[in-house]
Amino acid sequence: MSGKDRINIFPSRMALTGIKIRLKGAQRGHSLLKKKSDALTLRFRGVLKQIIKNKTLVGEVLKEAHFFIAESKFIAGNFGHVIVQNVEKANLKVKSAKDNVAGVQLPVFEPYTEGATGFELAGLSKGGQKIRQCSEAWAKAVKLLVELASLQTSFVTLDEVIKITNRRVNAIEHVIIPRIERTIDYITCELDERDREEFFRLKKIQNKKAILKAAAEAALTEKGYDSKAPVAEALPTSDPDVLFD
After folding, report:
1. Residue 227 reports pLDDT greater than 80
2. Predicted TM-score of the model (pTM)
3. For 138-191, what is the HEC assignment?
4. What does the buried/exposed string (b/e) look like for 6-37 if buried means 16 or more CB atoms within 10 Å of the residue's CB?
5. 34-63 pLDDT tens trace
């Protein structure tokens, strides 16, 4: 096993415990990222369905709005200059908000109306109803376009985040976790090899002690001592006094 296939670490019991903790953390992170990816994918599919639905609806609404403006111009004539004179600022505005989906901040655009529309004086002589219908149709179209822009932005953001999350999930599943598992196998094999070496060393020490003991007993037997006798019997009975003989 090369060093690139595992973590470069000194094999020990403490290192094995630390690597097992890292493995549990990696598995936990993989599980959380997988759940996040599933949640984002579910929202992504919902946004995609809503985009398809809104695009079809926007086409119909714009078609209807152009038809209304053609009718209004045919009945009331060119009323654009009247609206321009009465409008000081836009009454249909857009505000931005954030939507949190599995820790991902998605921008949301919400249209709202503020102030007068500027159509109060338009169509007083003729065509007032058609002009109001035209105004409502174009306001509806703008709101749908704003909603579509919000969905498109969320779609692009979710697509990018899902790619990043899936890359992280695949990296943990196919690179990090196998590398940690190979490191655990390496440390386990090294520790087992040490245990076998220690067992062999102890057996050799025991055999060496047994050989030395047998040699000592043989030496005592040659000198006339019984190696199986008690210590008091094995010792000589007389102890000559060397100093005062």
Report:
1. no
2. 0.64
3. HHHHHHHHHHHHHHHHHHHHHHHHHHHHHHHHHHHHHHHHHHHHHHHHHHHHHH
4. bbeeebeeebbeebeebbeebeeebeebbebb
5. 999 998 999 899 989 988 888 888 888 888
